[in-house]
Amino acid sequence: VINNVKQDMVCCDKCKQLFVYRSKDGTATLAKHNRSCEITEYYSSSKSHGISKKFKEKVKLACTEFVALDSRAFELVSGDGFFKMAQSVFDAGKYFNASSNIDVKELIPSPITISRNIDNLYEIKNNQLKNICTSLKSFCIICDFWTEQYTGLSYCGLALRFITTDYKLHNFILGCILYDVETQSATNIRMFIDAQLLSYGLSLKNKIFVVSDNENKMRAAFKEKCIRIGCSIHYLNKQLEHSFTSSEIDKKPVRCDKIQDLFENVKKIVTHVRRSHRQVKLKQKLQLYSDTRFNGAFYMLNVFLNVYDDLNGVLNSVHMDYLSNVDKELLEEICGFLKTFDEAINQLSEEERPTIYKVLPIRQALLNHCQVTHKNSSELKELKSFLVDRIKMVWVLQDQHFMSTLLHPSLKHFHIAPNKQKKAFDLVKQELLERAWISDGATDTASKAITTAISNKRRTTPTVNSNDLLTRCFDKPQPKPISTPTPVTELDNYMALDEIIDETEDVLLFWKRHAQSFPTLSIIVRDLFSISSFKHHR
């Protein structure tokens, strides 16, 4: 319609071009066009729609104002939940044209509405998780207990970890549950956890793994009807804690006196600066020591080292005396030494990928790192000697650590610890034979059928008709035996496989590729690699 006058038009079905329709010549113009039109089909563009710089700047400004006005963390805008919410609002906006005057407040629910919907969302997700749990045959439970400092209430944290048949690792938090039993005895802890797991249709059995800390009550609680795996980071962190804060352990002196004196002087200065509100004068915020934080001593000492030269302007005379007692060279040496431990803890605390296979090589790497050299100061030699003895004594490797290391293609030859390969190989071989023995019962009937078929084939082998005496003495042709790969053969083939992966590749993808070549080993991997190397990360 142009100037309120209806216009007659025709459209080409191929290229969608419009032509004027006139009664005197009809569609002659369109017919002429059809003879030269070369477009036969439209294809959607594979390129994403470009976003103009103007809109990007507008969204960037809005996000900046969002975190500033509402005092939110910068990381909030990179969360999956934020992306999902923003996409939902964006999709809703597609249904309104540019002239619509819609107030976004009409679209966003109120905090009260959201709070009321939380329980409904929880029930939906919880029921979905229960449905998943009913089909699980192998999984790992991660258990942790702690007491809230101010209320004195105790809580139990439970997490579920398993690997699906498509080799994907899943982590679910089952709950943070108020522990309302009178005492934390081993019996009460086990009964409490069994009841919580039963609500999800889960139960602890002989082949189910539980990761917990290494306190005696936790050892006792999970000594039966499950396989308890000690938290590797808990083992390591406790020894680091003892080296800086304990005068003796297990009735034996620690003998790290000079390093502990340095630690105490730094701790006093950090506490004073934080309490006196002089933190703003420093380029970096000092970190208070926390025994619940993994490698807490390193974080306090390392930040202190970074601002060491700026402390003169913020300390009074009393705390300047503490600073004068801090040997900067020794502080640098200790921080450099502890950095490797921090890297080890970060490696072991990864949640999105398996970590159990890292325990043995990282433990050995730390022992190697603690070897005394002539370049070390006497103070560092004392620290290294203490940590070597404690790691060997307390951080004991379990069978699952040996097997999982062998089942990583880049660690199976144990170059980091050659003397441990034979034990790992024998353990995996034993596990293979046990699983083969169990499966033999199920396949016994099929095996008999195959044997009968071969026997019949041998009996029905045609005889050689010949008048020659020697020919009649020749061996009769025999059918080729059906070769069934044995568990030992499967393990040998895996060990002979010349394929390694780098540290960035997910080891589960390797086993997904080779599941048909190593069927039993791949099942063992799904069971073992669901085990976490740590119980939590506060």
TrEMBL record:
Keyword hit for Isomerase: no
Signal peptide boundaries: none
Keyword list, A-Z: Metal-binding, Nucleus, Zinc, Zinc-finger
Species this chain originates from: Rotaria socialis
Keyword Transit peptide: no
Name of the protein described by the UniProt record: Transposase
Subcellular location, record wording: Nucleus
Molecular function terms, GO-annotated: protein dimerization activity; zinc ion binding
